[in-house]
Amino acid sequence: MKPKKWHGQAKELYYKEGRNISEIEVIIGVTRQTISKFLQESNSAAFEAEKEKRKKDTEERTKESKKQSKINYQAKQLGITPEEYEIYKFQRLTLKDELRQQHEDDVVALSSHGMSKSISNRELTYYRSAYKQTKSGNYRRLYATKDGAVIPELGLPRVIPRRL
């Protein structure tokens, strides 16, 4: 192939400046198909390597963009800023520990093996009215007591597994 004056410019724009073929088309004034064919034929190994490099870069940018979009969505759902959500993610671990401790306390309170000394009879009556024991032995939180009082969901686990 006889070198034309735009060949060197196309290589420089594609490999050194990192421009895409559509941008090169506008700058040089040659069709994308011609530029693409020239770049492939002039050095196919370098062209494929550059193509793979750009593909990986695009995948990384897309992955990061999706991650940020997910953070923004989760933060919006919680009514906080994305920066506050980052802090919230790390605080959730301590929240899980607190809920696990609360769960263990509830299991002890509802257990038929004995009553915890820290729970009064009145509290135990409340727990027993808030939960119903299933056939498998688990305790399932009710939506309302037999008297019609609504049971708040906050702080009470939905299901307490049977104590072995």
How is the secondary structure organized here?
Elements: H1 5-16, H2 21-28, H3 32-42, H4 44-78, H5 82-110, H6 121-130, E1 131-133, E2 139-141, E3 159-160
Antiparallel strand pairs: 1-2, 2-3
Helix pairs in contact: 3-4, 4-5
Mind describing the biggest β-sheet? Answer: 3 strands, antiparallel
Low-confidence stretches: 114-119
Give the percentage of residues in beta strands: under 5%
Work out the helix count: 6
| Rounded average pLDDT | 79
Tell me the number of strands.
3
Separation, N- and C-terminal Cα atoms: 82 Å
Strand order of the largest sheet: 1-2-3
Oligomeric form of this entry?
Answer: single chain
SSE series: HHHHHHEEE
Radius of gyration: 32 Å
- Counting helices, strands and paired strands, the structural category is mainly alpha
General shape: rod-shaped
Q: Provide the helix percentage.
A: 55-70%
Describe this structure in words.
Helix content is 64%, strand content 5%. It has 164 residues and is mainly alpha-helical. Strands 1-2-3 form a three-stranded antiparallel beta sheet. Strand 1 and strand 2 form a beta hairpin. Helix 3 crosses helix 4 and helix 4 (44-78) crosses helix 5.
Brief write-up:
The chain is mainly alpha-helical and 164 residues long. It is built from six helices and three strands, in the order H-H-H-H-H-H-E-E-E.
Q: Any key phrases for this structure?
A:
164 residues; 3-stranded antiparallel sheet; 64% helix; mainly alpha; single chain
